Amino acid sequence: MGAARTSVRRRRAVPWVVLTLWLAALVLAGPSAGKFSGIQQNRSVDYLPDSADSTQVARVQDRLPGGEATDLILVYHRDGGLTAADRSRAAAQVAEIGTAYPLTGKPRAVPSKDGSTLMYPVSSTRPGQDDKARDAFVDGVRDIADGGAGLSVEVGGPGGLQTDMSKVFGSIDGTLLYATLGVVTALLILIYRSPFLWLVPLAVAGVAAGMAMAAGYGLHEAFGVTVTGQSGGVMTVLVLGAGTDYALLLISRYREELRRHERPYEAMRAALKGCGPAVLASSGTVAAGLLCLLAADLNSSRGMGPVGMVGVLAALVAMTTLLPALLVLLGRRVFWPLIPAFGGEPRVRRSLFAAMGTSATRRPVVVLVGGAVLLGALALGALNLPGGLKQEDSFTAKPESISASQTLARAYPGRSSQPITVIAPAGKADAVLAEARTTAGVAQATAGRSGSGWTEISVYATAAPESKGETRTIEALRAGLDDTYGTYVGGPSAQQLDLADSQARDREVVVPLVLAAVFVILVGLLRSLVAPLMLLVAVVAVWGAALGIGGLVFGPVLGFDGTDPGLGLLSFVFLVALGVDYGIFLMHRMREESLAGAEPRAAALTALRTTGGVIASAGVVLAATFAVLTTLPLVGLVELGFVIAVGVLLDTFLVRTYLVTTASVLLERRVWWPGRLSRAPEPVRAERQPETV
Known about the structure:
Oligomer: single chain
Structural class: alpha+beta
């Protein structure tokens, strides 16, 4: 008796120990989590690989005298032509800016040929490399530069764009976190129909998010991992979305085990034992898929791999340790008013998914072919995706710097308002300058700063920024100068060009790696080659269909003028890794039923009936969390959130319910080839008792 009592006391102490360890971890991780947003790098050049020409240009520019300068362009414009009063007002305001801030040289007005616009380049070294000081300088200039009575004044240029981007990315973390928490809260209340239960997984998800931020900060400090606003936002969504999914699976099984076990501790042990392998495999596929991004050439994609991975692992650890501890300590009453009684039977209700599965298996060939044709037809919509996303089109609400750039493009049609920057060895600067001026598509080229053995040359194309004409000019400059003179050609437009080239290369490398990694994990879990191949084909089809729906929506409905070059790769990684999760839950249960002796059709229907509700709830939660990205002011994140949300819903309600089920019925035991289940003509002994995930 004494030993038994000691064992009970020890078991009762375990949740308290776990809770204490988590509290200590939070105290230690809190300061690092608070620094996470401060390490985010959101300049275009921060996304590029080290080998890109435009990356080298940006680095040399930082070392040149005045490299710490903030360059702005003040744009004064009046439809119909500027008046003498407008010109006097502009001159007075520029003089006031020169009094308020130390400027590099005296700004000189550059009038447009039609007399409608006046451009003042302004530069100051006071902000230095401090982002907050730069933003304060830009905001101060904008406060002074004031129009009125038909005169518009816009502050753009590289410094204005950096400040606008900084403000957009700075608003993402808070907006995204609170919006995602709100969506998850509403869905959990609807799913659990309890005034208390939803608080527990939500609180644990919040803790996991904090730990993920601390881990992300640690990766940056220890290994120099690039953290961008995009990867930080996606990490938040992954933690809350995937973490809530794991909580739904665990709590569903725990509720079932409470009817079989008198003590909550024993019920939780059984629940973890039952659904643990599926949850581990699920998180493993996501983590493995994300780690494949380490092979990417693009800094932003390569950094998103480990940043996303720590988010998923933080969610996994929190939901399999902290959540069980809290549920055990709270006992059965946390489920009020639907408290599961020991020895009781769950209320028998007609399963919607059982009905859907039965209807699908009556004519499995028709359902499978019809579903495949539907997905293929939707995928054709990808042909309607808009072209590459220009920098000026990357915001859902146009900031002032972009508006200024567009005004300049209209007012100065014969010359680009945005320079192409050529960095040449100082000893060859004159020859490079002469060669650049004779290059096709060049309107003007001027030498600028020199230092550290390099000279900066600003080249203005005759074509508009980020147009096909300017792209040809950049390519001509690189072809004529790089190999001959050892130059680098960069600047904002060149950065976008290098970005697209790197994304194309990364798709060729990362996509096969993701498929291979996920396939190996599925083979290990399902002990089959056919079932993993079936699941991979299904998720790739879902990805194509989701992109196709995006092609039907982005331009015609949302009015987007371009597609982010990283959309294809990132949506593929997330949809394959996350979509396979639900296939794991379904096929894992199907395999258990087959091991228990069920015939293929019965095993498929039982797996769908027992897992369908939880998978549907998890899919809705995950889709809703990614859909939150569509509320952000960046077109790239809106597109990514839309495609992933649509893909998850297609996967949850079409592919898992109908296509995977009917394919499994048609393949019968061959779905487990070459494992022993594919050869067993008679029922075999169960490895363990059937479980409900």
